[in-house]
Amino acid sequence: MGKHTEGQELVHATPHFSIAFMGNISKQIAPVFVFLPALFAAVMLWAIPNANGSGYSAVIVKSLDIPAYNDVAEGFKKQCRHYGISLMATYDLKGDIEEGKRDIQIIQELKPEPDIIITIGVLATTLARKHISNIPLLFCAVINHELLDLRGENIYGISSSVPFEEQFAVVNKMFQSQKKIGIIYDPAKTERIVSELTSLGSMYNYKFITRKVTSRNTIKPALDDIGKKIDVLWIVPDDTVISKESIGIFQDAVTKNRLPIFCTSSALVRTGALVSISPDYYSMGEQAAKMAQGLLHDPPQNSPRCMKPEKLTITINARTAEMLKVDISQFLSLPGVVIYK
User: What residues does 185 pair with on adjacent strands?
Assistant: First the structure.
């Protein structure tokens, strides 16, 4: 359920302040007339947005409580203060659709309503997109957002996609002599991504060996089929392929078959994949605050609908590298590299 916010506490406190003030008016009539104009001016300055963004408010809606989403939220909280945007509340949908619907209803009934809503993850974004059309929505950490119906006059976002050139740069650096790359994917979800990857691969002299799957039950047979034919497994952001059930399959590929895995998810690196390149989610939250400020000050038609992430992070599993005898020393001095040991 949505949290009781500090903003709501202040609303409840206001009537008590007024009653106490009026109760002492007969004793303090002269100071009151001096104090009221200043109080009125202060209230008006607080209520009217100024050039630095003060007076604007935001709400954060997270799909669930996971490190990447929390990083986005923390980055936004820090930077929105810099821009003078106050945070009314943070809602955690706990990955539950019904919980999400209740919280969205609460947000719709907030008085005053927020000036912008930051949604983090697919569930939060799709629910807000469906039920809220009168407040700007800025989505973050939505994988393959192009596949979702995120069109609308009030919809903006920061893409979670990593440019292919950046992905190939990491692959080239990590796997200089290994040219046979395997990809398992669901064509209904990532056909476009795989098609672009394989087209670009020829420029780098890579040979891609791909297998299509339509359900999670077919992942292991597909990997068994290509496992001995490839040097590296490249996992694309495909939720048919990436699931709790498939984590064990990929771990076996690493430990039993000595197959290095490249991906765009630092969470997979934590479970044993060798290397990933992904958005820096804390930085994405800071970027969202900057973008929110722009949306609140500039006419929406002049603002970009979706921006690329400004900062990327390379994540390497040192234990996997040692097991596979992969030299990672060339990455250690690079900025934005995280090493799991």
Answer: 212
Strands (E), the chain: 56-62, 85-92, 116-120, 137-140, 155-158, 180-185, 207-212, 232-235, 261-263, 275-279, 306-307, 312-317, 337-340
From first CA to last CA, the distance across the chain in angstroms is 37
pTM: 0.80
Give the amino acid at 325: K
Give me the residue spans of the domains in the chain. 53-160+280-311, 164-278+312-340
| Topology (CATH level 3) of domain 53-160+280-311 | Rossmann fold (3.40.50)
Say which residues have a Cβ less than 8 Å from residue 41's Cβ, sequence separation at least 6. Answer: none
Residue 170: both structure tokens together: 């990491």
SS3 of residue 193 by DSSP: helix
HSE-up (13 A, CA, CB side) for residue 53: 22
**Beta bridge partners of residue 57, listed in sequence order:** 86
Burial of 269 (0-12, 13-18, 19+ CB in 10 A): buried
Q: 164-278+312-340, superfamily in CATH? A: Response regulator (3.40.50.2300)
Residues with pLDDT less than 70, the chain: 1-54, 299-303
Reported as a single tens digit per residue, the pLDDT across 103-138 is: 999 999 999 999 999 999 999 999 999 999 999 999
